[in-house]
From TrEMBL:
Signal peptide span: none
Gene designation: zwf
Role: Catalyzes the oxidation of glucose 6-phosphate to 6-phosphogluconolactone.
UniProt source species: Gemmobacter megaterium
NCBIfam families named in the record: zwf
Binding site for NADP(+): G17, A18, T19, G20, D21, L22, A23, R24, R51, K148
Residue ranges of domain Glucose-6-phosphate dehydrogenase NAD-binding in the record: 14-187
Enzyme class: oxidoreductase
Active site: H240
Entry protein name: Glucose-6-phosphate 1-dehydrogenase
Length: 481
């Protein structure tokens, strides 16, 4: 199976913060891959904008180095790379001053899509938006992309929304969450809403519980300053994991339409019960295996920010009342894995004598690594000697199911940037959705004010207290591997 590549309209994409880490690792290599795939038409340009004084030639050299570092050898083509680099321009601009804005305005063309990627600190969003309008660089059809963190609490999120709203309509604002660009996340919607198989079972009557895990093996070194102010709750749960929870729990929208999808996600967030103190565990990783601990990484021996959080959430609506959702994320854990596991209830009556042999049916949606899905079902163990049950997976690895070419899936940023150019906001967060997520998150953070997180050894599954969070309910976390 070969995936179809549908070209977008010609565009001018201005990336503010074009010499930063995100542009180097994701944006520039991703756009090159879309050019190589034939999705970006000839009449398109990428304009880098940053404070650094740099010639267009130097920026092209910077982009070439990024491609060399972050694009696989089998996706390198000298002629295509040269043609891509020829699309690049650069302007030195002062986000909070007037330097460079006239030069940027002079580069803008009529008749193409204009998009502006704010790959900068949120404190600069307002200044950039104001100057784009002041110099007539952005018009009513332009699109702006803003990166997380989108606020640090409800108050700051509202302020950012208000700042952007002074200059752009909500339909022009694309709040990017790269988790929503992952192939498996979108396949979750396809599995739920394009097949009759699961929908009758997708409720509290048949689902025992849901686990969402995002585990990382790395620590916070390199992001220490940001991370120590945010912690895992703000960095992961409020946005990435909240979005996964919404896609699992949402009602079918009337149509695969941006506002229809986001309306249903918003309903889930508003139906979340407040989290009780006994239903949340925080942790900090200790030194080990020749690596510093969290306190050493952030150079703050008094830090109370968490590198791990596990919690139990409940949704008070008709579909999910009584079904717990367990969320877990952390740094310096046993393995790098992101997955959603939907565990179904056991049959009401077993006709088999070997009751101990029964295991639950589990649908596992894996986001990374090895994107794919498997459904664990019970079958008879082969051989004579009676009816012995064994659990086996019905596995669908995208790499195997779609073949070599079909498995070559775009990076999440590639897909989302192309959606910006198309004007498709389905996979982007709406302002009221962001505020609702913070309205739920803020009281959770307030619960542990002044409390130190539990310690945990690196290379484990987190603090022992997190295991007890599920053990007391007669359940177990899935193994991180």
């Amino acid at each position: 199976m070969v995936s179809r590549v549908i070209p977008v309209e010609p565009f001018d994409l201005v990336v503010f913060g074009a010499t930063g880490d995100l542009a180097r690792r994701k944006i520039l290599p991703g756009l090159y891959r879309r050019w190589l795939a034939g999705q970006i038409p000839e009449g398109s340009r990428l304009i880098g904008a940053a404070r650094s004084a740099m010639t267009p030639g130097a920026f092209r050299a910077f982009a070439a180095q990024a491609i060399d570092e972050f694009v696989a050898d089998d996706k390198r083509d000298a002629a295509a790379e040269a043609a891509f680099l020829a699309r690049l321009e650069y302007v030195a601009v002062d986000a909070e001053g007037q330097t460079g804005w006239r030069e940027l305005a002079a580069l803008m063309r009529d008749g193409v899509v204009r998009a502006f990627y704010f790959s900068v600190a949120p404190a600069l969003f307002g200044s950039l938006a104001e100057r784009l309008k002041q110099h007539a660089i952005a018009d009513d059809a332009s699109r702006v992309v803003v990166e997380k963190p989108f606020g640090s609490d409800l108050e700051t999120a509202r302020a950012l929304n208000a700042t952007l709203a002074r200059h752009f309509q909500e339909a022009q604002i694309y709040r990017i969450d790269h988790y929503l660009g992952k192939e498996t996340v979108q396949n979750l919607m396809a599995v739920r809403f394009a097949n009759i198989l699961f929908e009758p079972l997708w409720n509290a009557q048949y689902v025992d519980h849901v686990q969402i895990t995002v585990a990382e093996t790395v620590g916070v070194a390199g992001r220490a300053s940001y991370y120590d102010k945010s912690g895992a709750m703000r960095d992961m749960v409020q946005n990435h994991m909240m979005q996964l929870l919404c896609l699992i729990a949402m009602e079918p929208p009337y149509h695969f339409d941006p506002d229809a999808v986001r309306d249903e996600k918003l309903k889930v967030i508003r139906a979340l019960d407040p989290v009780r103190a006994e239903n949340i565990v925080r942790g900090q990783y200790l030194p080990g295996a020749g690596q510093p601990g969290y306190l050493e990484d952030v150079e703050n021996p008094e830090s109370q920010s968490e590198s791990f959080v596990a919690l139990q959430a409940h949704i008070s609506n008709w579909r999910w009342k009584g079904t717990p959702f367990y969320l877990r994320t952390g740094k310096r854990l046993r393995a790098r894995v992101s997955e959603i596991a939907v565990t179904f209830k056991e049959p009401p009556h077993s006709i088999f004598d070997d009751a101990q042999g029964w295991r639950e049916n589990v649908l596992v949606i894996r986001l990374q690594p090895d994107e794919g899905m498997n459904l664990k079902v019970m079958i008879k163990e082969p051989g004579p000697g009676g009816m012995r049950l064994v659990q086996v997976p019905l596995d669908m690895s995208f790499a195997e199911a779609l073949g070599a070419e079909g498995a070559d899936m775009p990076d999440a940023y590639e897909r989302l940037i192309m959606d910006v150019i198309r004007g498709n906001q389905t996979l982007f967060m709406r302002g009221d959705e962001v505020e609702a997520a913070w309205a739920w998150t803020d009281p959770v953070i307030d619960l542990w004010d002044g409390q130190k997180p539990h310690d945990y050894e690196p290379g484990t599954s987190g603090p022992e207290e997190a295991l007890m969070l599920m053990h007391r309910d007669g359940r177990r976390w899935r193994e991180i591997r």
